[in-house]
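Fold these two proteins, one after the other.
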Amino acid sequence: MSTETQDLARGKRIEANCKKIWGANKDFDFDVESDDYEFYFCYVREDFGDMFGRLLAATFSYRGLEGAWNELDRMLRHMARHVEQGESTTKNIGRLAMSKKT
């Protein structure tokens, strides 16, 4: 699978998990930031069309762009599983952020 195809699949997975967590009828903004172009972090916020909502999720700083996007994908996958199982994501957020299991 090409890198472009993998990136597209990851993006669709990230968006689908956000809709599971925060609502299927919402739109989301996904972005990545870096101060030094070595370490990156990704974040999610709600997109209202003419403005953005509060921060919904963010990764820690990761070396490399791919690491940050992969971590966001991992975090949201875990959060979506908890929502599907009827568990609170806010109650488990610390454990989810520190967990490295998939």
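Now the second one:
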Amino acid sequence: MACDYYGDILVPDFWYRAAQEFRDPEFLWAAAQTSIGPEPPIGEDQDEMRRQWKNAYARRFAWFIEHGIEPKPPETGSSIGLLSPTIYRIKERL
């Protein structure tokens, strides 16, 4: 019996849900990084790519835009310990 791994698919959804639950800009940053990637750098050859990225961000993260929450890189840097179970309690969903 084989077991399918959905980690790569579920990771962006997890961070999205955590960001929404706690209204946390650092979790929103993690959600954006895992779902649509980092914002392209500014440059004359990057205008079209930046426009596409901003459109994708507006579609995927409309709820956060409506609530005035903007992504912010974690002050401690991105790491496996960004989500601490002693600080954030995430309810289980079945």
